[in-house]
Design brief:
The protein is α+β, with helices and mostly antiparallel strands. The chain contains six helices and nine strands, in the order ββαβαββββββαααα. The protein is elongated.
Length: about 280
């Protein structure tokens, strides 16, 4: 897999729900070099890092890896119901799920092996196609299984999951328009406001016997001279902290972690710890 790893993508937006991103990934082959596989996972990490954590993510992919049966030590990201033993590619899937707080959905539902096997070719029967979602959204999925007899690609069988979303009624916030008093910081605005206010007060500084009227004159002059805001909330989706320096630091930390996972020497551990 390379930079064009995403084969299809859909984004669902609803005012009553967080955005949901659903995408599929291209097929990987076992002949791909380890360096290419690591590049793929690095690119997928970048895709995930670009999505706000509060938004749902569902990934469907042929990872050509076996996460294996059982989940000892990996209970936080997968269930017990995989197929056969884990291989290197399957470990990469599990490691990705841990990094991104995802869950391997297929493995949480107890099914007959026929409804867990996603790939059949001759005498080979295994599980290489997976659906992943954020761990926090796992409770919204009530079922996941292979549809026997249905194929989506050569030798690959269809995997489906049932996801139920609760539609929450959102309370509409009251729109409140505000006078732009901060415009008084500008000398020309401040001077114009003084002149207009003096005129409105009939040349007097204050009206001591009727402060409420005076206050309303001040407010009305402010609205006319300085203007008012629209009252709408400004939705700033800019992640100002997610700059190039932060991305580079995270990437170096991630590579150091991979290096330590593959060769657990004290030198590699120290390098990972210091980043």
């Amino acid at each position: 897999m390379n930079a064009t790893l995403i084969t299809h993508y859909r984004q669902f937006r609803d005012a009553k729900q967080p955005t949901m991103h659903v995408f599929g990934l291209g097929e990987e082959t076992t002949e791909v070099e380890l360096e290419e596989k690591e590049r793929f996972w690095s690119e997928l990490d970048e895709v995930m890092d670009s999505i706000p954590t509060g938004e749902r993510v569902v990934i469907r992919a042929d990872f050509n890896g076996h996460v294996g049966e059982g989940n000892t030590g990996d209970e936080e990201v997968m269930g017990k119901f995989g197929v056969k033993e884990r291989n290197l590619e399957g470990q990469m899937v599990v490691d990705f799920a841990k990094r991104m707080d995802m869950a391997v959905v297929n493995t949480y539902f107890q099914k007959r092996e026929e409804h867990r096997v996603t790939y059949k070719s001759g005498g080979r029967r295994t599980q290489v196609d997976y659906i992943l979602c954020r761990r926090g959204n796992l409770k919204e999925i009530s079922d996941c299984k292979v549809v026997v007899g249905e194929s989506v690609a050569r030798q690959h069988r269809m995997v489906v999951c049932r996801m139920t979303l609760l539609v929450c009624k959102t309370k509409r916030s009251k729109i409140e328009k505000k006078t732009k008093w901060w415009m008084l910081k500008k000398e020309e605005c401040c001077e114009e406001f003084r002149q207009k206010l003096r005129q409105a007060l009939g040349g007097q500084v204050v009206l001591p016997d009727d402060w409420e009227t005076t206050a309303e004159v001040i407010r009305e002059t402010g609205r006319k001279v300085l203007g008012v805001s629209s009252g709408r909330r400004k939705e700033d989706k800019e992640t100002w902290w997610w700059n190039e320096e932060v991305q580079d630091s995270i990437q170096r930390k991630r590579l150091a972690k991979k290096k330590w996972d593959m060769d657990r020497t004290e030198e590699n551990r120290q390098e990972y710890k210091e980043l």
